[in-house]
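Q: Can someone sanity-check these two? First one:
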Amino acid sequence: MPVYDYEALDTKGKTITGIIDADGAQAARQKIRAIGSFPVTVKEVTDGETSKETRSLSFPALFRRITPAHVSLWTRQLATLTGAGFPLVTALTTLVSQTKTHGFTKIVARIKDSIVEGNSFASSLTLYPSVFSQIYINMVRAGETSGTLEIVLQRLADIMEKQQELKSRIQTAMAYPILMTAIGTLVLFFLMTFVIPNITTIFVDMNQALPTPTRFLIAASDLFKRFWWLLVVAIIAGLVALKAFRKTERGLVATDRMMLSMPVMGMMLKKIAVARFARTLASLLENGVTMLPALEIVRNVTGNVVISGLIEKASSEVEKGQGLGLSLAADDVFPDLAVQMVQVGEQSGELESMLYKIAEVYENEVQSSIMSMMAMLEPVMILVMAVVVLFIVLSICLPIFEMNQLVG
């Protein structure tokens, strides 16, 4: 069934906009009149327009693009409706009018129409791979096959909410250091390009020998004032080159391996990857996906190609009959505690629940590590800024002290 964008006037003469599905433009106008509004424009939305909006990176689209948070909220709402006994099509119809993001509303409407045409829910989701991941689609397919779709949707919502919660905590913890770094950089830029050149001009005009710190500050300020744009260009060029390098297979492996080998951050990235791996694998296994297909799916959620490669190797060993715990223990990436818990879960027949416990353990460790790191980083940043400012102040004050001694 076609989907139409419309603009209409309500009973108070206020302009309203929205989307509606109907057999044709005339039927769409009749539906709009039926809800007490007067249609002004009615335009059919094509598949190309919908997919374009989901991929758009224009400035306005950044505020209406479909994010994982939108999908998580929609999944929770759909799980609630289906759990309350609503048929799937009825639940989707209800959510079409309640979904706030314009592009996502169109997608939900088209998924509903695809189901009405006789396709399964999972097959309808595959029309939008940029919105719904392979894990999401496979779990929905398993839920449809087993007749437990509402339970699967609830677990999907739980997984996505956990991921969003962890991401939100990391972003919140990083907000203050990033803000401090930005402000410190701007202050340093202002001092080096405007304040220091005006002050040090007095010392240069006196034609007297200046202390070493002062001469270094004047040279650095002069260099920065003349070539600051070159520094900006170099940073941008470096970021572009890094992005291009990561697009190659060799570059992606090299940078991901380097990130894992970093002293503190590397261990934290490993814990995040293990938590994602454990929680997702537990959900897939719990919803009827067998081990080998589950490992094939879950290796793409770790966020690191090195770890993904190790999971792929472990999957090959599992296919030969070896246990998952022993397969993961072959490399040093997975922590010993996680490997031991997997082995205990396999031996006791409670692998899914043990994987959930692994995810909770490492998610809590990541949160604790982040809070500890931020608690240490804040005073370090303040100390660094204090040292820089102290150096600038001393470099300016030393010639003044020498001049006072000469006058005395």
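And here is the second, same format, sequence then tokens:
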Amino acid sequence: MRTVVIGGGIVGLSSALALAERGLEVVVCEKGSIGSGSTERAAGGIRAQFSTPTNVELSVASMAVWSEFEERFGTDVDYRRNGYLFLARTAETAAALESAVEMQTERGVPSELLEPEAARERCPGIDAQKFVAATYSPTDGFADPHLALQAYARAAANAGVDVRTETSVTDVLREDGDGRVVGVETPDGRLEADFVVNAAGPWARRVAAMADVDLPIAPKRRQMVVIDPETPVPETDPLTVDLETGTYFRPERDGEALVGGHLADGDPDRDPDGYDRGIDFDWAADVLETAAGWATYFGPESRIKRGWAGLYAVTPDDNAVLEETVPGLITAAGFSGHGFQHAPATGRIVAELIVEGEASLVDVGALSSDRFGTERERVERNVV
């Protein structure tokens, strides 16, 4: 049985590895270089503090891999379990966090609801007076996306996966009779396949359209900057998020901080082949000023060292599409910024869908594309 995986990011390579470990012949078609889409430009967060059960369960299953990553892959990905700290300014947000903690703890996540002063004990640099509540989980953290991606690429190649870079997919082929997907077209010719996996990230909607499928997955530009703060950020600080302003920071090395935030409403869809990968000066100044309003580290002597922009593949409810969309076409895309951390579980689920016909690791029924525009659509509130 042959599977063609479209996309050489961490979701595509995790899927390819899981399939190869099941004994399948796997070809990965990557239009650029490995990780040249979203993975190499990710912040590297790994957390279980989500507001929807499916995302929590994907995180728990993925963390089982992340916690043993070096042992399994032979690569140290600088996985630091500093925790995540979510901060609430309003009673409404605090109530949502409280509800989320209850749901998370039912699934084995050691998250807890905190008073503002207790939150400041976790992160001494926050202005506790700005907030009414917080949540924290000590098992959340972050890792290096580049190192993780390279480890998956080596493991996939060692497992016999045929990884073809600079190989774009120009069409997804369907049979005339039942419409089953039977392969792809590339500049080098046709590749027949029993299954095709759409793990194309920001290009996922274009790939789906080749199979005459419309998926509401939009490429949205997101930026982040590395700051040399006025007050050094301790390396033990958690990744800390002000949910109301949408800004966050996490420690880098030597007192620096990675700072980001979703500040623009109505951000237009971007062309994944031609968007600006640098940062906007106005955005960088705004995000730093906003973070300085609630975190004492970022005084007036703070300076921006460098920054970059990448693309989220975003759905209307900020949850992925993970399903067999039409016979022979598996979709694993639209993670809305969660793809890196959920890649280990996603790869295994893709393999289950192809080999067994259904997912058993996590019930992914809530991630089917037929949810859009129905009452089943539920927004993931904890988006970073």
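A (reply): Looked at the second one. The mean pLDDT is 95. The first helix runs from residue 10 to 21.
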